[in-house]
Write a structure and sequence with these properties.
Blueprint (H helix, E strand, L loop, with lengths): L1 H23 L1 H9 L2 H12 L4 H30 L4 H22 L7 H18 L1
Helix pairs in contact: 1-2, 3-4, 4-5, 5-6
């Protein structure tokens, strides 16, 4: 239990540090936030917990491919903000577009680790969520 708490505390410190740096220097905060700190922490925790090198390498490869659709968020957010949509609406629209991009990417990317039934289930969830919020 103490080990789990330590993992949470270290991860939280990284997030808080980025937010505090952003108050003083957004460029430096962007640089720190762009570092794969979350991935590095995940790799470290996996290694400490006894995961194989192959498992860590596979995770690293998967992260690379899933970074690509996440870039849409960073393109859309400033566009929406500059068009005066407000912070929360811009954040929500950017996140929704990114989630849609993730679903599409997961369906078409063969290395996503999802089998055909899981892909169909992901589409069903996406359609259900769209109906609930529109």
């Amino acid at each position: 239990m103490l080990y789990y708490a330590l993992k949470v505390i270290i991860s939280a410190i990284v997030i808080v540090a980025i937010a505090e740096i952003a108050k003083r220097n957004t460029g430096l905060a962007a640089l720190v936030a762009s570092l794969p700190l979350t991935s590095l922490l995940a790799f470290i925790w996996l290694h400490i917990e006894g995961s194989t090198v192959s498992q860590i390498a596979d995770l690293s490869k998967q992260i690379f491919w899933f970074v690509l659709p996440s870039l849409l968020f960073f393109v859309l957010l400033p566009i929406f903000l500059k068009h005066g949509l407000g912070f929360w609406l811009s954040l929500g629209l950017s996140a929704a577009a990114t989630i849609s991009c993730y679903f599409s990417f997961m369906f078409f990317y063969p290395g996503s680790g999802l089998n055909y039934k899981e892909k169909i289930a992901a589409i069903a969830v996406k359609n259900w969520c769209t109906k609930c919020y529109l």
